[in-house]
TrEMBL record:
Biological classification of the source: Bacteria, Pseudomonadati, Pseudomonadota, Gammaproteobacteria, Moraxellales
E.C. number(s) listed in UniProt: 1.-.-.-
Segments of this protein annotated with the region Disordered: 225-249
Coiled-coil annotated residue ranges, if any: none
Protein name: Putative oxidoreductase CzcO
């Protein structure tokens, strides 16, 4: 009597080989699990390969590394450049011989009741796993403010995710919108070549010159801890109240713009017209381009078949594990999954803390 053909079922399938996927892969290999990583990019680097060439990290290489292997910076050890990050990621996956397959654009994750596992598909190929890690990040789902007249504006509108440098904006009138680090860095370099203004809803908050991006990670971590304890006052809360205030790290280009008196902002405009904007005082101005540095939303469309996405476009998780589908784990989407997990240092710590629980889950399930 013939038997039914068997289909290979991996212990874990990781979707995405950016910083979160690599960190998870490091710990899965150490646990000696049978896993693969599926990535939609043609080469290593995750979302970093899509950022503007002059981008620099907020923290020194010593604290901007994934587990097991230190990042180095060819130009300035205190603040790695984009090229350092890309080289590091490429070297990292090769050094640890991570089983990464690309490019595969994953379209869906579904339950496979017959095999009691999850099914991952790109529309052409299908893979099965006892657990799935979603680490697709946020870059592919940029957020742009909804402003009256945005469909009428005839000039250029791009998100910071698609900004490639200042050359295209030479001598143009440009608005950079957003009070975060990307807005500060992009405005600082555009102010050198263009008639640029930095537009924010609230005045930007700057960290002291001698403070780097580590404080942002520690603050995010403390915020999560405080929420977990229902805001109870304790020694850590008291310490946090004396921490440096602000969100923007004073990177060298930002410092230079400040020292030249360029680091000023304008309040948000009221609406867009075909040729430009209308400011809050009613003045109209012609604008060539607007660069939206307004953040991202998580990219979770591939998880829709599991019915785990809430009204706020997030997934309920506990220590990275989906509450509604325990075989699904999420890494790298930000504070709502794990403190600062959308950063390199946060991705590493999140994997270190939560992958052991994933390994234990698989042991119990077997």
């Amino acid at each position: 009597m013939s038997s039914k053909p068997t289909t290979k079922i991996f212990d874990v399938i990781v979707i995405g080989s950016g910083q979160a996927g690599l960190a998870v892969g490091y710990y899965l290999r150490r646990a000696k699990l049978d896993f693969i990583i599926l990535d939609n990019q043609p080469r290593s680097g995750g979302a970093w390969q899509n950022f503007w060439p002059s981008l620099r990290l907020f923290s020194p290489a010593s604290v901007s590394s994934l587990p097991g292997r230190m990042m180095t910076s060819a130009k300035d050890k205190s603040s790695p450049y984009l090229e350092d990050v890309l080289s590091y990621f490429d070297n990292y996956e090769k050094h640890y011989k991570l089983p990464i397959y690309r490019p595969f654009e994953i379209q869906s994750v579904e339950r496979d009741d017959e095999n009691d596992c999850l099914q991952v598909s790109d529309g052409k190929f299908t893979w099965l796993a006892r657990a799935v890690v979603s680490a697709t990040g946020i870059w592919s789902n940029p957020y742009i403010l909804e402003i009256e007249g945005s469909q009428d504006f005839q000039g250029e509108q791009i998100h910071s995710a698609h900004y490639v440098g200042p050359e295209a904006y030479q001598d143009k009138r440009v608005l950079v919108v957003g009070a975060g680090n990307s807005g500060a860095q992009i405005f600082a370099e555009l102010a050198e070549v263009a008639d640029a203004s930095w537009v924010t809803r609230e005045p930007p908050q700057f960290l002291p010159d001698d403070v780097d991006g580590r404080v942002l990670f520690e603050r995010a971590t403390q915020r999560i801890k405080n929420n977990a304890s229902d805001g109870a006052e304790d020694e850590s809360n008291a310490q946090d109240s004396h921490a440096p205030k602000g969100d923007i790290v004073m990177m060298p280009p930002v410092k230079q713009a400040r020292d030249k008196g360029l680091l000023t902002t304008k309040p948000m405009f009221d609406r867009l017209t075909e040729q430009g904007v209308v400011w809050s005082d009613g003045e109209e101005e012609s604008i060539d381009a607007i660069i939206w540095c307004t953040g991202f939303n998580p990219e979770l469309e591939h998880l829709a078949p599991l019915d785990v996405i809430e009204d706020d476009s997030k997934v309920l998780t506990e220590h990275g594990q989906s509450v509604k589908e325990p075989r699904l784990w999420l890494f790298g989407y930000g504070d709502w999954v794990s403190p600062a997990s959308a950063t390199i240092i946060g991705a590493g710590r999140s994997a270190r803390e939560n992958v052991p629980a994933l390994v234990e889950f698989l042991k119990n399930e077997s």
